Amino acid sequence: MADLITLTALSILGAGFLVGIVVGLTGMGGGALMTPALIFLGVGEAAAVVTADLTAAAVYKTGGAIVHKREGSPNMQLAKWLIIGSVPMALLGPYLVSVFADPEDLDDTLKLCIGFALLFAASTYALRLYINLKRVRGGGVQAEENPAIRPLPTLLVGALGGLLVGITSVGSGSVIMIALLMLYPGLSAVKLVGTDLVQAVPLVMAAAISNIFLHGLDWGILIPLVIGSVPGTLIGAKIAPKVPQSIIRRGIVVVLTMSGVALLDKAGWAPLGAGEDETHPMLIAGVGLFVLIVLPIVWGFLRKTQGLPMFGSPTIAQLEDPNYRPGLVGMKRKDG
């Protein structure tokens, strides 16, 4: 017990709590935030962090999936095809890395993979907002509670998500979600979230099992991570209605981008290439500042392509709200 009450354990618990709050606030996947946070804290090798994060995710995602299943929100046929594609690749992913990567370079290889996965997650989240913007401007698409399943593309989406999660722990709540939005635009937001949660449980379990067999499980990371993240998630979900979602979601895109670049830098990726566990702090800060300034401008021009003013309604939070319906006043507003 004394081994658990250490500065490292407290830092993991604190990181888990803070990331849990963000997950509860936004519903975004924790792996994209938790994994880089633990790596930068220096609590263990990248493989140990990924394994612990996946194991913790299997715990709290199971609870969320049970709630959605009881309320009847998941589309089980859709979840089935995703699982068929994702579970085998989640099991295989860690072994592929171990086969093709030099054991001495495994840590840097995983950091590279996670860095690119974070940038991919940030891009898919931005794409998701744009798709929602087009949907709202088009008056929405006709809701389909039980759309016709497209087995092959759904299976391929599951396979890509499974491979990504198995290697990096990033992707179950971002990459798969955006693919489902594109494949099944009529699926309601509640069905979308419920289906994603149900398919994510066997996916992260398979990825966790594969990583545990390959790298072992560091209980010193897992236990404080679970203790911190579960109450954090509950608190975040409770205070979500009172917090400005637009600011938080923009902040997450900035953080994901900076974390991705920092991990690529830390791993010695040639175009950045600090390497030897070092980074270029000014470069990372510059990337963050650039995204912070440019992102709202780019978003404003995208709004104009849809016949909207650069700023105003619908806000990012409204685009993510399944109950939002644009009114004439909201669509014509030109103030912030």
What does this structure look like?
It comes from Nocardioides piscis. It is found in: Cell membrane; Membrane. Belongs to the 4-toluene sulfonate uptake permease (TSUP) (TC 2.A.102) family. It is a multi-pass membrane protein. By secondary structure, the chain is an all-alpha fold. It has one domain (2-332). 73% of the residues lie in helices and 0% in strands. It is built from 13 helices and no strands. Helix 3 (46-70) packs across helix 9, helix 4 runs parallel beside helix 8 (189-215) and helix 5 runs antiparallel to helix 10. The longest helix is centred in the middle third of the chain and has 32 residues, at 106-137.
Give a nutshell description of this structure:
Helix content is 73%, strand content 0%.
Largest sheet: none
Rg (C-alpha, Å): 20 Å
The backbone outline, from C-alpha atoms, is globular
The share of residues in extended strands comes to under 5%
User: How confident overall, as mean pLDDT?
Assistant: 80
Estimate the helix proportion, in percent. Answer: over 70%
Q: List how many beta strands DSSP finds.
A: 0
How many structurally independent domains? 1
Q: Order of helices and strands, N to C? A: HHHHHHHHHHHHH
Class from helix and strand fractions: mainly alpha
Low-confidence segments, given as residue ranges, are: 328-336
Number of helices in the DSSP assignment: 13
- N/C terminus separation: 53 Å
Family: Belongs to the 4-toluene sulfonate uptake permease (TSUP) (TC 2.A.102) family.
Protein name: Probable membrane transporter protein
Pfam families: TauE (PF01925)
Membrane topology: Multi-pass membrane protein
